[in-house]
Amino acid sequence: MKTTRNATRGLAAFGLAALPLAVQAQAPEADTNQAMRLNPLVVTAALAPRTADETLASVTVLDEATLRRQDPTSVTDLLRGQPGVDITTQGSFGKQSSLFLRGTGSNAHVLLIDGIRLRAATTGAAAWEFLDPRMFERAEIVRGPRGSLFGADAVGGVVQLFTPKGEEGAPQPRVSVGGGSFNTQRYSASLTGSSGGTRYYVAGSRFETDGAPVRQDGDDKGHDNTSGLVRLSHTFNNHAEVGLLALRSRGSAEFDAPGAATDGFLQQVAGVYAEQPLTDRWRSRLTLSEARDERDTQAPTYSSLFETRTRTAQWHNTLALGPHELVAGAEYAEDDLGDSQTSGLSFDEDRRYNRAVFAQGFLDFHPLTTQLSLRHDDNQAFGEELTGSLALGYALDEYHVARASYGSAFRAPTFNELYFPFAGSSNPDLKAETSSTVELGLRGQYGHWFWDLAAYQTEVEELIALDEAFRPVNVHEARIRGAELALGAEVDDWALAAALTWMDPENRSGDNAGKRLARRATQGLRLDLDRELGDWSLGGSWVVQNHRYNDAANAERLPGHGTVNLRAGWDFAPMWSLRATLDNVLDKEVVTAQGAEFDPVTFQSMPFDYINAGRAAFLSLHFGG
């Protein structure tokens, strides 16, 4: 109770601190670019471009300027501590990472890359650790259920990463080289431009490191990743557009196990699309895509190979009716384990399809706006599922919008949870998770800054979790309550982003009723502050999280942590710049997960902490715009 009271007081204090600023706002008009950065267009929340204050959802946008300033070595470093986002890792540099969005499971959200879903069909989770952040120019985090738009797994929300579209004009090259601690080396190059209605962007990157230990007194665990990206599009005179995307990452990561143990991986998305304006008000788009997730694990005592593919056909139609908008479409997706095998054993089922139709109406009766959506899924394994949402927004005045929403979602059990071919590791009797969420929010949007406050409650039935024997079972009921405060500002040459998260993810049934869901922190703060000083830029990030428990019974407590990262940039000549980062400046030990090993003397399982890398410095040289 003391922890909850302190968190509530902290959230209230943060909110009250913003009120005097809101009163003084009288915000003068900012320039267009600044206004777009503080109130950016978001496409993930409603399948159509809407400014952040129009989406009727809790959204966070990390734009190109943010990615360039921070220049993170991993996507997880970029997302860590953002509103409602919690990340656990089993070490640094390519080690297994899990993302929890609003307290839901690591496979209860959707990762999209330019609209293409990427995950392992076996686990249902995305391999965040194998994505190179230099391949992307933007990230959108939409929190809250989006099952009525994206189908299964969108319980906690959706994260979408966007690749560059290609800039207009003559070819523009960009090159960067750098390195730093742990014998790390980073290289990247790209070429972008347009000609005669055709845009193109081609890029490649290489990351390699000796790595750092993932446990006390352990050996360094290395990682390498080679990524390539091609994106092309052509716009015809009648405004029709066709395009293609191909993104591929391949490499390896050493992990903790007796002897030399390595995960070889391949992550790939590929898609083609055609978009045609059928009338002045009606646009239609067809997308065909395939996502691949492959993992080849080699260790002295075992080996495994998983090759999964998800093939998808999507048809979207957008109809503009004055201030109103209707989106309707259909989707067919097929998960295929292909040649996946584990030690010569095969899954009982290795393929399933999902068919869906959906519709959304966005009705603008200013100052009242309404968003209604409905989706019907027909899953080969679990039959039919209907999800929907209703959101209402009301403009209190020129600067403030209040919102309220209700949404449902579901998560179908994964192939591993149902059919993993080791005795006692799967459960073919699992039921699908279902959930419902109620949310209230208030946003203040001014010329030079904004704030967004949201409170929500999610009820999950038949939550899929691991029991004491690490077998997946249904937990009859879980409840997640939370509140988030996000703030952003750009004043003169200062840029500020702040996020405060409070959450209470509780198991409400069975032997662990009243316990916190495993590996979730309940309080978090992230503060990013940057300053432009002519040709120089300086900045830093402070990320704080409280303790968490590694197990469902809350017997294994992992300490909280706070880390400080610093960065600097110098534009020393036209088209040339240097960037330096110093991560974990105070050399704090960060533990967000535990492992276990068998003790042959005591015949017991002995837990150990997975630790992240300590203080690390990196320097890079960049050429290009």
From TrEMBL:
Keyword annotations: Cell outer membrane, Ion transport, Membrane, Receptor, Signal, TonB box, Transmembrane, Transmembrane beta strand, Transport
Ranges where the TonB-dependent receptor plug domain occurs: 53-158
Membrane-related topology note: Multi-pass membrane protein
Pfam families: Plug, TonB_dep_Rec_b-barrel
UniProt keyword Zinc present: no
Coiled-coil residues: none
Domain of life: Bacteria
CDD domains, sorted: ligand_gated_channel (cd01347)
Subcellular location: Cell outer membrane
Leader sequence residues: 1-25
Transmembrane segments: none
Start and end residues of each TonB-dependent receptor-like beta-barrel domain: 179-585
PROSITE patterns: TONB_DEPENDENT_REC_3 (PS52016)
Protein family membership: Belongs to the TonB-dependent receptor family.
Name used for this protein in its record: TonB-dependent receptor
